[in-house]
Amino acid sequence: AQSVSQHNHHVILSEAASLELGCNYSYGGTVNLFWYVQYPGQHLQLLLKYFSGDPLVKGIKGFEAEFIKSKFSFNLRKPSVQWSDTAEYFCAVDMNTGFQKLVFGTGTRLLVSP
Amino acid sequence: GAVVSQHPSRVICKSGTSVKIECRSLDFQATTMFWYRQFPKQSLMLMATSNEGSKATYEQGVEKDKFLINHASLTLSTLTVTSAHPEDSSFYICSASQGAPDLGNQPQHFGDGTRLSIL
After folding, report:
1. Which secondary-structure segment (H or E) carries B38?
2. pLDDT one-digit tens code per residue, A28-80
3. Which pLDDT score is estimated for A98?
4. Which of B32, B44, B112 sits opposite A99 (nearest CB)?
5. How far apart are CA B30 and CA A107, in angstroms?
6. pLDDT for the residue numbered B111
7. Residue A60 forms contact with B (CB below 8 Å)
8. Residue B62 has what DSSP assignment?
9. Mean pLDDT computed over B84-105
10. Distances (CA, A) of B71 to A98, B68, B100
11. Distance between CA B12 and CA A13 in Å, rounded?
12. CB A25: neighbour CB atoms within 10 A?
């Protein structure tokens, strides 16, 4: 079965530190890739997505992610985190069904200390 | 834009009762709605996909007679947990999309979730 792995379950950073959250998936076909963020007490929101084209995609709030097909990875990055980035981050993969049938990773809780 | 309202946010009820959860798209027409279940410290697991006016498609291992899904209009889908038992206690999340095979990939917009506790 297809699966999505997020290796870091909890990450603690100081403000201005750089962030990289790992995401790997197991599926050999064409995929669409997503990162969602869930701020405390709020619903899931789309950070960025990759469907095709430039494998380096930029999202909201200074986040970016790079799709490396050979590594089945879609890691999320931000050069300098802020306290307001404290949230849970979910990687999700759609096996290109057209209906966005998403398989989610287990999430990474990020705590940014001021 | 693209707001999805899910109600109720929390429900506590006795074992054996049925519970209905509503998912509404407030400012767009949701061709497709999705229902997820999330256990503590685990990822969201897709339960079913529903398209307006047709029967829902359930994922493997999800009992369709237990989790009744109705998508009667382009703005409303409901999930009814029938004869709920303590093992059904979980966090249920809906999402809505304007996606359809001929519309290409459209993003999913998520509701706030419903925490269901069965005593």
Report:
1. strand B32-38
2. 888 889 999 999 888 899 999 998 899 999 999 999 999 999 999 999 999 99
3. 59
4. B32
5. 26
6. 95
7. no
8. -
9. 82
10. 19, 10, 15
11. 37
12. 20
Assess A74–B contact: CB distance below 8 Å, yes or no.
no
- Per DSSP, what are the bridge partners of residue B18? none
In this structure, chain A runs to a length of 114
Confidence band for B43, pLDDT divided at 50, 70 and 90? confident
User: Would you list which residues of chain B are within 8 Å, Cβ to Cβ, of chain A?
Assistant: 4, 32, 34, 36, 41-46, 49, 93, 95, 97, 99-101, 104-108, 110-113
**Cα separation of A108 and A88, whole Å?**
5
A-chain residues within 8 Å CB-CB of B36?
A: 104
pLDDT at B103: 52
Whether residue B1 contacts residue B27, with contact meaning beta carbons closer than 8 Å, is answered with yes
Instruction: Check residue B16 and give left, alpha or beta (phi > 0: left; psi -120 to 50: alpha).
Output: left
Q: Rounded mean pLDDT of chain B? A: 90
